[in-house]
Amino acid sequence: MTMSSKCAILLVRVVEGVSVVVVEVFYKQVRHRIIFDTLSFNMRRNIVIYPSKSEKEKLLTQLNLLGAKEVFVEFRGGGDDGQIESVYYKDRQDNHLEIPKDMISWTQIKYGKDPLETKQMSLVDVLEDLCYRALDEASLDWCNNEGGQGHLHIDFTQSPPTTHLDIGINTMSTDDYNYDMDEEEDE
Question: What is the dihedral of CA 103, 109, 113, 114, to 10 degrees?
């Protein structure tokens, strides 16, 4: 491959401590897809996002009692900002449902020197907190410049349930063209 090839990271997936990067390489007008199963830049193999095992079990039990087959926390960012767009679950009949306002005890994420604080939070707030923890631990820039989007996914079709984070990082490419405008036309 030459230095003029273009590469773009399209998807980074973190699945229970295993990270995957999909890179599309454009070489001589042909798209090649390359999959790397490890990252060397700021990606940890064991990403821990649940405050404790008991809080993880409590959250998963509560979501399972709702009849959740899958839970999604969708996010989007760009420019210099990012936020959670929606939090919902699919039941066993694949209906998209809102998360109820049920409350559970949760140790909320804190930054800086603030002490950890356990308090009663709604399931939506807990799931948003969990997603922000995962995004923080993944250390990918999903909310600056071209930004990114994705979702945190809790899958109850697996036993035990799995939690994974899908992040699409947006990239911008530039194609440069050079035209000589000083040539005279042939007569």
Answer: -10
- Tokens matching residue 21: 């990067």
Q: Which SS3 state, helix, strand or coil, does residue 148 take? A: strand
- Beta strands per DSSP E along 56-143: 68-91, 96-98, 103-108, 117-122
- Give 113-169 pLDDT, tens digit per residue: 677 788 999 999 999 999 998 888 888 888 888 888 999 999 999 999 999 888 888
CA atoms within 13 A on the CB side of 136: 12
Mean pLDDT confidence for 42-68: 83
Flag whether the pTM goes above 0.85.
no
Could you tell me the sign of the dihedral formed by the alpha carbons of 48, 50, 55, 59, in that order?
negative
Dist. CA 82–CA 94, nearest whole Å: 28
Beta strands (DSSP E) in 16-161 are: 18-27, 30-36, 68-91, 96-98, 103-108, 117-122, 144-155
Q: What are phi and psi of 28, to 5 degrees?
A: 50, 50
Closest CA to 160 of 81, 76, 78, 50: 50
Whole-number mean pLDDT of the chain?
Answer: 77
**Per-residue pLDDT at 178 exceeds 50:** yes
